[in-house]
Amino acid sequence: MHMKPVTLGVIVGNRGFFPDHLCITGRKTILKVLEEEGIHPIIIDENETKVGSIVTLNDAQKCAELFKAHRDEIDGILVTLPNFGEEKAIANTLRWAGLNVPVLIHAFPDDMTRMTVADRRDSFCGKMSVCNNLTQYGIPFSLTSLHTVNPESESFRADLRRFAAVCRVVRGLRNARFGAIGARPAAFNTVRYSEKLLERTGISVETIDLSEIFGRAARLHADDPKVKAKIEQIQSYVPTKNTPGEALIRMAKLGVVIEDWMAENQLVASALQCWTSMEEFYGVVPCTLMSMMSNSLVPSACETDIAGAVGMLALALASGKPSAIVDWNNNYGDDPDKGVIFHCSNLPKDLFLEAAASQEDAPQMDYQAIIAGSVGKENTYGTVVGRLKAVPFTYCRVSTDDLHGRILAYVGEGHLTEDTLKTFGGYGVVHVPNFQKLLAYICENGFEHHVAINPSMVADAVNEAFTKYLGWQVYYHH
């Protein structure tokens, strides 16, 4: 997935009898900060309206037309108030543009040494009036951490980055297309979901049977250039010294077929059936291929867990980093705020300890130890095993509540730790504040055992995107 720079429509608010020079300098400052943060602005020309601000009904119409002309580019809108601002003009601009994108309201702070009629801003008060009008118009909006804030401060820059993450999540999930490869395994009732509820929110699911995937793979020859290239990619991605050559060929064919199918159908994420059809009837596990896709910001979840893949994609969109799907799997001793997360695994390589830090715990290809006894070790090669590195992380679970016709989620943050642990698969020890409260919430509300994780701190942005702009019901754990 290519993470394109965020584009924001920019509205500079102004009130007719307030000093224009505040808008002239304020506009320049905002545009400077946006450029420094790598954000592309769409803003009305400074000669098109009074100093390039939005004051009158005519200004609002002009700005709305500009935004509509760039509808396919604009990810969100920044409203900045160098002075009190004209709240009706701002609200009308947003209504008439009809973009339905996130909106951030910013107000400049007053300087206590410049409080005369020539320099006083009153943005502090004007921001409330803008928010009041947007509420009346039914237009959702986001706020900066501080009521008024210098745009060149780190506080505002952090707000801007968070808002950019919100915009990426909202834009990325609306009209997203997911691929479900295979049927839900009979033993995994936990990953049931409603395609119809996802479709209503803009998320489509394209399906394909495993027999079609296996059939297409069988038509490929080992000397096919695409298969050879995929083998090279696998071998450069993770050490494969203990993996039989035949298993690598099977993996490569499978990878080529899945990638081609996803490209043909313009899919941004996937979820695969694995246990135990893949091993019994094809002879490998798909974990390495899934790990490679997730590491390239194309999330791939286990056991056709499409709702889990939605959480993975949301986190990747917010952070620009790879997401993994894991099990909340074990307690860690007697510490109530620690636990073990685990998968077989298909975890992306970037989440593991590097070989330089620990050769023993660095990722490598192996066989699936849990099911090898029932389907044969020779049919289970392809896992990526190792220990996750100690970093802060965000977790997220999305679920469909079919009985009440709604989408639910929970989100929060924690830390992967360096606590001692020796086990198999892909694993790590986590510390989550008030972990027992979270676990009780998961159980009492019937959430799945799978959870998406991402090595970033983006819970605020994901929560805001889900609740304010997508209308999902979210539990934000603290």
TrEMBL record:
InterPro entries with a match to the protein in the record: Fuc_isomerase_C, Fucose_isomerase_N/cen_sf
Cellular component terms (Gene Ontology): cytoplasm
Domain of life of the native organism: Bacteria
Keyword Isomerase: yes
Keywords, ordered alphabetically: Carbohydrate metabolism, Isomerase
One Gene Ontology term of the molecular function aspect: L-fucose isomerase activity
Pfam families hit by this protein: Fucose_iso_C (PF02952)
Record-annotated L-fucose isomerase C-terminal domain positions: 342-478
BP terms from Gene Ontology: fucose metabolic process
Record-given protein name: L-fucose isomerase C-terminal domain-containing protein
Organism (species): Anaerolinea thermophila (strain DSM 14523 / JCM 11388 / NBRC 100420 / UNI-1)
